[in-house]
Amino acid sequence: MEDPSPFDAQSLLVESETLDAFLAEVAAEAKRRMPGANGCGVTLERDGRPYTVASSGSSAPPLDEMQYTIDDGPCLEALRHDKEVYVTDMAEETRWMPYPPFAVDRGTRSSLSLPLKERHGMAGALNLYAERPGAFAEADKERLRLIAAQASGALVLAVRIADAQQSAADLQATLRSRTVIDQAMGVIMGQQRCGADDAFAFLRAASQNRNIKLRDLCVQLIQNVTGEPPQEGAFQPRK
Known about the structure:
Number of strands: 5
Helix content: 40-55%
Shape: elongated
């Protein structure tokens, strides 16, 4: 079988709004290009904890979860040892017990797990499941290897983008807190006729004495003085 079009992970990444959405598309594309598969899942492991971030078809989630429960299986072997794992027939498989009988009971007889190369403390695997034994021919494996290789490269970029977005969100939260603190300092400076350093020291001491977060204390102070919540717009540096 020929693919209807070349798989382009980079374009897929550009068109996806989130990392999870990108990986969901990867899973869907892999399953679509392997008609013998009835399910496909993408597993990531970070800080020693594996989880399914995306799947296509109903078979992948329970099979993935069983492997996470026993902390063993073809999926975890692929991602932890950076190697391809092909199970030709679950009914004859003796590794990873009790996983193979569990898979057979749920109608899965063969599987293919391809590693997504480890980057920045993250490892992953692309996992495909099929109802019949020996469902993955060599041509199928080669096609899926190309998808996994492209997905690995795009995953590195996707993780960097996700981390950058989180950093930007953290920065915005920090700037909003700084703005509120600056407004409260202005109130204290007017009331106490003191400088910025003394105003900040006053607020910090009050925060510690009352066992309340500095930002929350500042919000309360501004609301008590103005009767309105503080303005949390763009950060304005103190002069």
